[in-house]
Amino acid sequence: MVLFAGSLLPYTQYILYFTSGFMYIPTGRDFIAPGYPIMPGDDKLFPAMTGEHPSKSRGYNLVSGGTENHLMLVDLRPAGVDGARVEAVVEMASIALNKNTVPGDKSAFIPGGIRVGTPALTSRGFTEDHFEQVAEFLHRGVAIAKEVNESGIGKKLADFKGALKAQEWPQITALKNDVEAFASQFPTIGFEEGSMRYPTTKDYE
């Protein structure tokens, strides 16, 4: 999962994943160190999503009842929406994650879950406390997807995606603004903002 402080491009999250890994290749010790916050990040995100958090209950179910690594597979079926629709909504709000099948699914194209991971966020400096906000962003995305799906737009996934493009949804715009404001606090992986050089047409001549 990646939170962006700008527009999403195709496969942007994978570019960042590779960049993050290549950064640490020269020194094995430096590669190990960023791994330590990954599990504490999951330890915070897991209860924030499932309702075990002391301050707020969101009530999602995790496949297998929990996680022992950096990934969580969230079953959205009890929430009344599928992973494909949630993926489409949060992508418009500058959040990159993946739809994922869960046990009992009949279609990989419209699966019942989403796959959420913490490494891309911990690599940018997220700590345990930041994942409470991440959980809230995801919760809002699920609620928006359900609201759009129940607005009388048709039953097919194509109808859903068409409705997202047909008009502006203030809820998605508000979520996008909040995500980008939050994400902009954390440096992008692999380079310093001050050293960025935006290419011009001359760079391709």
What does this structure look like?
The protein has helices spanning 12-23, 28-32, 38-50, 83-92, 119-122, 130-149, 157-166, 170-183, and strands spanning 2-3, 61-62, 71-75, 95-96, 98-100, 113-117. It is an alpha+beta fold and 205 residues long. The protein has a single domain, classed as Aspartate Aminotransferase, domain 1 (Alpha-Beta Complex), CATH 3.90.1150.10. The strands form two sheets. The chain has a four-stranded antiparallel beta sheet. Strands 1-4 form a two-stranded antiparallel ribbon. β2 and β3 form a beta hairpin.
Short description:
This protein is of the alpha+beta class and 205 residues long. The protein is built from 8 helices and 6 strands; from the N terminus they run βαααββαβββαααα.
Fill in the keyword field for this structure.
205 residues; alpha+beta; Aspartate Aminotransferase, domain 1; 4-stranded antiparallel β-sheet; two-stranded antiparallel ribbon; 8 helices; globular
Please list the strands of the largest sheet in the order they lie side by side: 2-3-6-5
pLDDT under 50 segments (min length 5)? none
Summarize the biggest pleated sheet: 4 strands, antiparallel
Structural class: alpha+beta
The number of helices is 8
The name of the CATH superfamily reads Aspartate Aminotransferase, domain 1
- The number of E-state strands comes to 6
CATH class group: Alpha Beta
| Rough outline | globular
Sketch the topology as an H/E string, one letter per element.
EHHHEEHEEEHHHH
Number of domains: 1
**What is the rounded Rg?**
18 Å
Mean pLDDT: 78
What is the distance, rounded to the nearest whole angstrom, between the alpha carbons of the first and last residues?
A: 35 Å
Q: Per DSSP, what share of the residues sits in E-state strands of 2 or more residues? A: 5-15%
Helix content: 40-55%
Oligomer: single chain
According to CATH, the fold-level topology is Aspartate Aminotransferase, domain 1
Based on the coordinates given, report the CATH architecture. Answer: Alpha-Beta Complex
